[in-house]
Each structure stands twice: as structure tokens, then as C-alpha cells.
């Protein structure tokens, strides 16, 4: 249920309503918009329905949330959720780019990639330390040493860093070293992991499972939000369909749909969606045109020799050229993009 307060209520009036909600045994989530404040309530809704809350002068109306997800629902929050990452926030209306190698392979290639994507306008560096691989015999990442490399490159370049966490036992360690935790497609419904990253309080980049519906994705986000962590970014990365020509099928309609359904930022990963570097630019631009808050793109200084996902990783100069086009599309839509720094 959502309690909508009258415009410009005082702090004291707000606190009285919040207290009332708590006394009923529900958990209030206060969200302040420009003119209006709303209180999302989680718990036994019957108790709220029976309580004479409408008699409180600050309360304008009480609305049900007819969705299985509550905290993730757009109605639950006044405005957009901004997820802080370094100096910027994803969800602020600008088109943000997060880029980096699928796997961290060593300090030199990581620094070279970071400097290049930063110069091209990327706002964060992403590199895998622990890699979920379909085959147990594939390269599975450098692990702890890659976390140290990410932390060093962050110190050198100032770029915030993101890496995937695969295991509940690693969450605390990974959260100490990076700025944002990625939960990958294969773990989107690992509910123990979602709970753990929720408790870490760190920004989370939650990728859509390859056979997950958008409702499944929003309910996965709800797990993180329900642990008190509001900093969740959703990421469409292509789903499995009958089509085999490309690695996955980019569900471009997911972008405007999610933007309507939730206040959380929505990113698109065109690299995993198509699996081919020559098609990444077209999908990236389509994502921006569809209203994505940002892009997650795999980039490598020598993709032909990459340890993982080389076929879909862009060369550094290709990424810079793409960022020019991203800026053109963003500008045409009246949306800002971070400027290149060179
Ligand atoms: C990745 O980002 O490198 C990755 C493994 O992605 P996904 O979980 O979307 O397959
Ligand atoms: Mn990858």
C-alpha cells in the first residue's frame, strides 16, 4: 500500500503518519518528491486497510500496489532512483557507459583499457574477477588478485570499478574492494546471493537471467531492495529464444517497459546480447534510443587473444568511435552524456 501525503506537509506531520504505520506493525519507506511525499508500506495490508489513517490531516489518499513486487514498483517511489557510482549517478537522465574486459587478465591490460574507456567518456570500469562459465574447463577468472588489480586501477584512474560476485561467501570481500557488485544472468535467481548483496548496501548491477521474465527480474530486484539496499540497476542482456543466429535475443521492448514499471535505472548490455563485436554499436544505439539509462559494453585491448568473450569485445578505438555516436543519439533525444576527457 502507498500512503500519498498532501503537498508540502511538515516534517512533524510526516513523522506522525510514519509512527502510525509502525504501530500497525508495517514497515514504512518514505520517499520525498519535489512537491509530494509518499510512504510505501510493506507488511500485512489488511491492518492498514482497517486503520482510520485517512482521518489524519496529512494523508491525502491510500492506494494499493497491485503488483507482486512492491519496493521495485514505480508507484512506490516519488521520482527516479539514482544509483551513485563515483562522481555520477546512474538514473539521473544522462546516458552512462560502463565498459571493460569480460575478464581481468592482468594489470597492464586493465590499466590500458581503463584509461582508454575513461578518455572515451565511460563513467565506470567493469572487469570480471570471478567468471561464471558454462563449462568448468573454461577460464574462470583470476579471482582475488584481479580484485586487487581493479582497486589499483581505480586508484590510478579515479574510475569506479564493478565486478561480478558469484558466491555468498565472497560478498564481503568483493564489496570491500569494488564500488558496485554485479549479479550475473546465471545468478539472477540465486536468492541467497541476492539477500547477501542486499545486506552489503553496495550498488548492485543485476542482470536479467537468460530465461527470466521481466516480472522475475523485478522480483529478483525486490529481494535486494527488501534487505534495505536501494541501489539497484537492472540490466537487459539478451534472452534465449528459438533464434540461433546471434548469441541471444536483445529484448529492446524490455527497456521502455521497465522504465514504466520501476523507478530503478535500466541498463543494456549489447555485447552479451549479440555476441559479435560488429553488431554491438547498432544494439547500443537502439538501447539509447529506447530510453536506457546506460550501457554495459565489453572492451579489450586485444580481443582476438582475450581469455573470455573475445568475439564480442570491442577494440579500444571502436569503443571510442561508438561513444561519439552514443553522444549524437543522446543529444538528439535531449539527454546529456559524459564528455570525452581527451
Ligand atoms: C559478463 O558480464 O561477463 C557475464 C558473464 O554476463 P551475463 O551474466 O549476462 O552472462
Ligand atoms: Mn562476458
Uncertain regions: pLDDT < 50 for 5+ in a row? none
Helix run count: 11
Radius of gyration: 21 Å
End-to-end Cα distance, whole Å, is 49 Å
Report the mean per-residue pLDDT as an integer.
96
Strand % is 15-25%
- The SSE order reads EHEEHEEEEHEHEHEHEHEHEHHEH
Instruction: Tell the overall outline.
Output: elongated
Ligand identities: phosphoenolpyruvate, manganese (II) ion
Biggest sheet descriptor: 8 strands, parallel, barrel
Q: Specify the structural class.
A: alpha/beta
Counted beta strands: 14
Quick recap:
The protein is of the alpha/beta class and 342 residues long. The protein has helices at 11-23, 45-50, 107-120, 144-157, 171-177, 191-200, 214-226, 254-261, 270-274, 280-290, 316-332, and strands at 2-5, 27-32, 37-42, 59-63, 83-85, 88-90, 96-100, 124-126, 161-164, 180-183, 204-207, 232-236, 266-268, 294-298. Helix 3 crosses helix 4 (144-157), helix 6 crosses helix 7 (214-226) and helix 10 (280-290) runs parallel beside helix 11 (316-332).
Written overview of the protein:
- The chain has 342 residues and is of the alpha/beta class.
- It contains eleven helices and 14 strands.
- The protein has helices spanning 11-23, 45-50, 107-120, 144-157, 171-177, 191-200, 214-226, 254-261, 270-274, 280-290, 316-332, and strands at residues 2-5, 27-32, 37-42, 59-63, 83-85, 88-90, 96-100, 124-126, 161-164, 180-183, 204-207, 232-236, 266-268, 294-298.
- An eight-stranded parallel barrel has the order 7-8-9-10-11-12-13-14, surrounded by seven helices. A four-stranded antiparallel beta sheet has the order 2-3-1-4, with helices on one face. A two-stranded antiparallel ribbon has the order 5-6.
- Helix 6 (191-200) packs across helix 7 and helix 10 runs parallel beside helix 11 (316-332).
- The longest helix has 17 residues, at 316-332.
- The radius of gyration is 21 Å and the shape is elongated.
- The model has no long low-confidence stretch (mean pLDDT 96).
- The structure holds phosphoenolpyruvate and manganese (II) ion.
- The site of manganese (II) ion has 5 residues, from loops.
Amino acid at each position: 500500500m502507498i500512503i500519498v501525503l498532501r503537498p508540502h506537509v511538515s516534517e512533524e506531520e510526516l513523522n506522525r503518519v510514519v509512527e502510525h504505520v509502525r504501530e500497525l506493525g508495517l514497515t514504512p519507506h518514505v520517499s520525498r518528491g519535489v512537491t509530494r511525499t509518499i510512504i510505501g508500506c510493506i507488511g500485512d495490508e489488511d491492518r492498514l486497510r482497517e486503520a482510520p489513517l485517512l482521518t489524519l490531516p496529512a494523508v491525502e489518499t491510500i492506494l494499493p500496489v497491485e503488483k507482486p513486487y512492491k519496493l521495485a514498483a514505480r508507484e512506490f517511489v516519488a521520482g527516479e532512483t539514482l544509483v551513485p557510482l563515483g562522481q555520477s549517478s546512474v538514473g539521473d537522465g544522462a546516458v552512462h557507459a560502463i565498459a571493460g574486459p569480460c575478464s581481468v587478465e592482468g594489470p597492464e591490460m586493465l590499466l590500458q583499457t581503463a584509461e582508454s574507456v575513461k578518455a572515451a567518456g565511460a563513467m565506470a570500469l567493469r572487469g570480471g574477477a570471478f567468471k561464471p562459465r558454462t563449462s568448468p574447463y573454461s577460464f574462470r577468472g583470476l579471482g582475488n588478485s584481479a580484485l586487487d588489480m581493479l582497486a589499483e586501477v581505480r586508484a590510478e584512474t579515479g574510475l569506479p570499478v564493478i565486478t561480478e560476485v558469484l558466491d555468498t561467501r565472497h560478498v564481503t570481500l568483493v564489496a570491500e574492494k569494488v564500488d558496485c557488485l554485479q549479479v550475473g544472468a546465471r545468478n539472477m535467481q540465486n536468492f541467497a546471493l541476492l539477500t547477501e548483496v542486499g545486506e552489503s548496501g553496495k550498488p548492485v548491477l543485476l542482470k536479467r537471467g537468460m530465461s527470466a521474465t521481466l516480472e522475475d527480474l523485478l522480483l529478483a530486484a525486490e529481494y535486494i531492495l527488501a534487505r534495505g539496499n536501494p541501489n539497484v540497476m537492472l540490466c537487459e542482456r539478451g534472452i534465449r529464444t528459438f533464434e540461433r543466429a546471434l548469441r541471444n535475443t536483445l529484448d529492446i521492448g524490455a527497456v521502455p517497459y521497465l522504465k514504466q514499471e520501476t523507478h530503478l535505472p535500466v541498463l543494456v548490455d549489447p555485447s552479451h546480447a549479440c555476441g559479435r563485436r560488429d553488431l554491438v554499436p547498432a544494439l547500443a544505439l537502439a538501447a539509447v534510443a529506447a530510453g536506457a539509462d546506460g550501457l554495459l559494453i565489453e572492451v579489450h585491448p586485444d580481443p582476438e587473444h582475450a581469455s573470455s568473450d573475445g568475439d564480442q569485445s570491442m577494440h579500444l578505438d571502436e569503443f571510442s568511435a561508438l561513444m561519439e555516436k552514443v553522444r549524437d543519439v543522446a543529444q538528439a533525444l535531449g539527454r546529456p552524456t559524459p564528455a570525452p576527457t581527451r
